[in-house]
Amino acid sequence: MYAPISSSSSAFLGQRSSTNSRWSKVVITSRSCETIRCVVTPEKTAYKTTVSRNANLAKLQAGYLFPEIARRRSAHMQKYPDAQVISLGIGDTTEPIPKVITFAMAMRANALSTLEGYSGYGAEQGDKKLRAAIASTYYGGLGIEESDIFVSDGAKSDISRLQLLFGSNVTMAVQDPSYPAYVDSSVIIGQTGLFQKDVEKYGKIEYMKCTPENGFFPDLSKVARTDVIFFCSPNNPTGSTATRGQLEKLVQFARDNGSIIVYDAAYAMYISDDSPRSIFEIPGAKEVAIETSSFSKYAGFTGVRLGWTVVPEELLFSDGFPVAKDFNRIVCTSFNGASNIAQAGGLACLTTEGLKAMQDVVQFYKENTKIIVDTFTSLGFKVYGAKNAPYVWVHFPGQSSWDVFAEILEKVHLVTTPGSGFGPAGEGFIRVSAFGHRDSVLEACRRLKQLFK
Ligand SMILES: Cc1ncc(COP(=O)(O)O)c(C=O)c1O
Q: Which of 151, 159, 179, 271 to mutate to test the pocket of ligand 1 (most atoms within 8 A of CB)?
């Protein structure tokens, strides 16, 4: 078990022994004798099952973007334990949920302790009253019915459920840059090829470039036909919002190609101009679109978890089968309905008082957005988005997003998000989130002014 190594030889630490693969580490314990006494420590041999890893998961690059940012933030905090790190990165809400909403959830929670108020599993599609309230509040006059609404535990889960619905044989398009869940879930379900390092793209995904040059709306004449088109407006990360005219073009493009649009409206309540808040405001959209949305960014429900997806009954597969029927099957198989407490909160959100409270929350974050925009603008940066969204898309031409992210974190202890994490067209940008307490946002802006003055 001892390997004598001459003190003059260049002893290598950690090389695997060729004679016995169970031993790997050679640790020098003494240099006082002529020959060095070495202890060979056993390598941990982990038990392995005979199950092959899902090859699609192996295609994914590094971690999901936001856990990777959290990891870098933790590493930074270890390096600078006394630093006051401010996070305007991940896009998590920070302000308390309005009382009118938590009160309803508390009442529902308390009722669960009574015989009369107890309820177990609810309908997988959600509480009827909540489905009706979502239909009338967000889709009134658009021909969307209660039965078209599927209440869920959030838009992100629904994006994965939709991928399960489509399966591995469809092709898909995304805005570039876009919220990473679309691409990652597409890779996981097996719709894509391998990641191509030279172009920073997965094979078989159509990346629809959205940059300042095209006003953050893709040139559809250059977009290849795909089965599914993920489209988010207001877009995360660019904060840009598609106009009515642009959405009309998108719907026409989908109709011409027989494609299905998955429209992510998670930030629709941040729209304050006349841009559409729902894809279903566009005539003809019900035959070609699904819409997903969420209470996360309106009511601070990122932890409570409540969202919904609209699958109109008019939307049909090529064989005439209703998409909603298959989605219902997916929901009933993979989900047992949103939490009854969260749904009570959702109903409270949609009362007159609740809606007013959500608008106040949205307004608060929009004021943060303005503070961040003014800061970067005063420093001479070109910023985009922000008007109808809680995200500021800041341009650092010619610079690597990760370098900019790292510099801001290192020098002023501020976490942002590197634009390239959202797709190759995000390179040269960072996303600054407006989700933060007012004093944190003001302090972050003070530090940015110091850094870039
Ligand atoms: C565009 C977009 N869609 C969906 C989600 C996820 O929302 P939820 O919290 O409802 O899962 C987010 C969250 O940041 C998002 O930015």
A: 179
Mean pLDDT of 243-270: 98
Query: What whole-number distance in Å separates Cα of residue 56 and Cα of residue 188?
Result: 5
Helices (H) and strands (E) in the chain, counts: 13, 19
Residue 15 clears pLDDT 70, i.e. is over it: no
Mutate to test the pocket of ligand 1, among 158, 267, 297 (most ligand atoms within 8 A of CB): 297
Using pLDDT thresholds of 50, 70 and 90, give the confidence band for residue 90.
confident
Whole-number mean pLDDT of the chain? Answer: 91
| Strand 414-415 relative to strand 307-310, pairing | unpaired
- CB atoms inside a 10 Å sphere around CB 58: 10
- Counting from 1 in the atom list of ligand 1, the atom nearest the Cα of 92 is 14
Name 296's Cβ contacts closer than 8 Å, sequence gap at least 6.
93, 154, 155, 266, 302, 305, 306, 307
**In this predicted structure, what is the pLDDT of residue 41?**
59
What is the pLDDT, as a whole number, of residue 16?
38
The pair of three-digit structure tokens given for residue 149, joined into one six-digit string: 């609404």
Burial pattern 314-325, b for ≥16 Cβ within 10 A else e, equals bbbeeeeeebbe
Average pLDDT for 37-58: 82
pTM, entire model = 0.90
Residue 102 burial (CB < 10 Å; 0-12/13-18/19+)? middle
Using CB distances shorter than 6 Å, the residues near ligand 1 are 91, 154-156, 179, 232, 236, 264, 266, 294, 296, 302, 307
Q: What is the pLDDT of residue 422?
A: 96
Helix (H, G, I), strand (E, B) or coil at 292: strand
Burial (CB < 10 A; 0-12, 13-18, 19+), residue 181, is buried
DSSP characters over 207-273:
EEE--GGGTTS--GGGPPP-SEEEEESS-TTT-----HHHHHHHHHHHHHHT-EEEEE-TTGGG--S
**Bridging pattern class, strands 289-294 and 260-264:** parallel
Provide the pLDDT for residue 21: 41
